[in-house]
TrEMBL record, chain A:
The chain crosses the membrane at residues 121-143, 163-190, 202-221, 250-271. It is a multi-pass membrane protein. InterPro entries: ABC2_TM, Nod_factor_ABC_transporter. The lineage of its organism: Bacteria, Bacillati, Actinomycetota, Actinomycetes, Streptosporangiales. Keywords: Membrane, Transmembrane, Transmembrane helix. One of its GO terms (cellular component) is membrane. This is ABC transporter permease. It comes from Actinomadura logoneensis. It is found in: Membrane.
UniProtKB/TrEMBL annotation, chain B:
Keywords: Antibiotic resistance, Membrane, Transmembrane, Transmembrane helix. It comes from Actinomadura logoneensis. Pfam families: ABC2_membrane. This is ABC transporter permease. It is found in: Membrane. Residues 24-216 form the ABC-2 type transporter transmembrane domain. Signal peptide: none annotated. One of its GO terms (biological process) is response to antibiotic. It is a multi-pass membrane protein. GO terms for cellular component: ATP-binding cassette (ABC) transporter complex. It comes from the Bacteria. The chain crosses the membrane at residues 28-46, 58-80, 140-163, 170-190, 225-246. One of its GO terms (molecular function) is ABC-type transporter activity.
């Protein structure tokens, strides 16, 4: 017994090109997601052994205390939301800058970089998965900050538009992963690695208006703020808490956060590829 | 004594050499110093957004003085490095003893702390529209130096924790100055906090020094200022004592159990 395919001419047996492309794309997508997930799990195991990766969880309650005490001392209950949201945003930034930026250099020190480069998978996807795990730790800072406000100061922050708030957090996390990827690339390629990690915190908290509106900054600085995803996230999260995020401005803010995150991700992946290519070309893959 | 001072001097040279591996004068100025100035401005701008110029000045002064404390406590990282790099046993067997090296290991951070807090003291108040009353503001500078010195003792004492547990030095450092920034009267007066918390905070460095600085700027009676300066000096001396006892115990236990060369 023979199949009908064997009796038909070869050309007729071919699966249509579009269908084949679709199947291959789906297989490729599943494979890529699986790769990112495995990298995510690897980072979770590594972070569990490194207490310093929990640093932001120690810092966030103290930061909330400082900001909230100042806000309440100034009798400005309208600014309580900013004081509670800011440590969460700072947590995401610290995770991106401090830990994600160290992913590749730490691999080089620990001797993991060589097998990773030799493996038949794109290193950029591995770094994306690992950076995502690290950034997720930063998200917990939001919960900590809310708890400190509620238990320490008796201020229970109520979110008037919870749907928008969740969307804003999700978009902010995605943008953080993209930004972390870019920072990981820049920091790995830079000779002033420690300087960058130590310096890129407060300038961005100011530019991002994480705790005060951008109108507080000098007018010549404000255009730069629009290039920092934190500025869009901070405003959107505050609006979600107050229930004032609607329509066009909401869509614009979400689009801006995602676009800035995507641009940073693309830049980070390009830098990671460049890093690997340069290391292969120069024979420095095994160097710490 | 002269011998010990020479060893501290050598440890300081080593510290600056170590620092030179990370920073050039350009990256220090346009990276680290700029970051510190932004940190102070961040809180001062929040103060100006929330309240009047009085609140802005309160927050600004607090955060400038806290720079001195923050940089001094970085000694935690330098000291923890001795154990991670395996040099602690060498210090313990050195004829000069380990304490002079131990105490000189982070002097470079006191120096940079002095420079950064002085730059912030001179530049930021006029820039943010809350100028300090000169020449009275100059009298506060020796008190800021005292804060640097007392915070350094506090950092050395807490380094004892980082030397005993591997991988926690950054947690210890951030906790060390984090609680001072949160509760030490930097952004809000101490009276905001409950009495039991205030009683604990009294034993932290910076707290009395900062009150002395605020007293000088506000033209408080000399007796009040001197009492706060004396309290700051006493607190600092207490932390040096804790640091000395902690290091002595670490080395003696390490010698007895043969664990001094363990990386924590």
């Amino acid at each position: 017994m023979t199949s009908s395919n064997e009796r038909r001419p070869l050309a007729a047996r071919r699966v249509p090109l579009a269908r084949r492309a679709s199947v291959m794309w789906r297989v490729s997508l599943v494979w890529r997601v699986s790769l990112v997930w495995r990298a995510f799990r690897l980072q979770t195991v590594l972070s569990r052994r490194s207490p310093s990766h929990a640093l932001i969880l120690l810092v966030a309650p103290m930061q909330t205390t400082s900001l909230l005490a100042l806000t309440l001392h100034a009798h400005r209950p309208d600014a309580v939301a900013s004081a509670v949201i800011a440590p969460g945003l700072i947590g995401l930034w610290v995770s991106s800058l401090d830990y994600a930026g160290r992913v590749v250099p730490e691999d080089q020190w620990a001797g993991r970089f060589t097998p990773m480069v030799a493996a038949p998978v794109p290193l950029a996807l591995v770094v994306v998965g690992r950076v995502a795990a690290v950034v997720l730790v930063g998200v917990l800072a939001f919960a900590e900050s809310w708890l400190v406000a509620a238990l320490g100061f008796g201020r229970v922050l109520t979110v008037r538009s919870p749907g928008v708030f969740v969307l804003a957090i999700a978009a902010t996390c995605l943008a953080s992963v993209g930004t972390a990827m870019l920072l990981a690339g820049v920091i790995s390629l830079s000779r002033a690695r420690d300087v960058l990690q130590n310096s890129l915190s407060y300038p961005f908290y100011m530019l991002g208006g994480v705790v005060f509106p951008l109108t507080v900054l000098p007018s010549w600085v404000r255009p730069l703020s629009h290039l920092v995803f934190l500025s869009w996230s901070a405003r959107l999260l505050r609006d979600a808490v107050h229930g004032t995020a609607h329509g066009g401005p909401l869509a614009l803010a979400l689009a801006a956060i995602l676009a800035l995150g995507a641009a940073a991700l693309a830049g980070g992946m390009w830098l990671t590829r460049r890093l690997v290519d340069a290391a292969r070309r120069d024979g420095t893959v095994g160097y710490a | 004594m002269i011998h010990a001072i020479r060893v501290i001097g050598q440890a300081t040279v080593l510290g600056f050499a170590e620092m030179g591996r990370v920073y050039t004068w350009r990256t220090w100025t346009f990276g680290w110093l700029l970051r510190l100035l932004c940190q102070v401005s961040f809180y001062a701008l929040l103060g100006s957004y929330l309240g009047d110029p009085g609140l802005t000045r309160f927050v600004l002064v607090g955060n400038i003085v806290v720079l001195a404390c923050m940089e001094s406590t970085i000694v935690v990282i330098s000291l923890a490095g001795e154990r991670a790099q395996g040099t602690l046993p060498l210090l313990a067997v050195a004829p000069a003893g380990h304490l002079p090296v131990y105490l000189g290991r982070g002097v470079q951070w006191m120096t940079t702390g002095l420079v950064s807090s002085m730059v912030a003291w001179a530049v930021l108040p006029p820039l943010l529209g809350v100028p300090l009353p000169w020449p009275r503001a100059a009298y506060a500078i020796p008190v800021i130096v005292l804060v640097l010195v007392s915070s350094y003792g506090y950092g050395c004492a807490l380094a004892g924790v980082a030397l005993r547990t591997r991988g926690v030095e950054w947690l210890v450092l951030n906790f060390a100055y984090g609680i001072i920034m949160a509760f030490g009267g930097t952004n809000v007066p101490l009276s905001v906090w409950p009495a039991p918390l205030r009683a604990v905070v009294e034993y932290l460095p910076l707290v009395h020094g900062l009150q002395a600085v605020r007293g000088i700027l506000d033209g408080a009676p000399a007796g009040h200022v001197l009492a706060q300066v004396g309290a700051e000096a006493l607190v600092g001396a207490g932390w040096y004592l804790v640091a000395w006892l902690s290091m002595e115990r670490l080395v003696s236990v390490g010698r007895r159990t043969g664990t001094l060369d363990h990386a924590g």
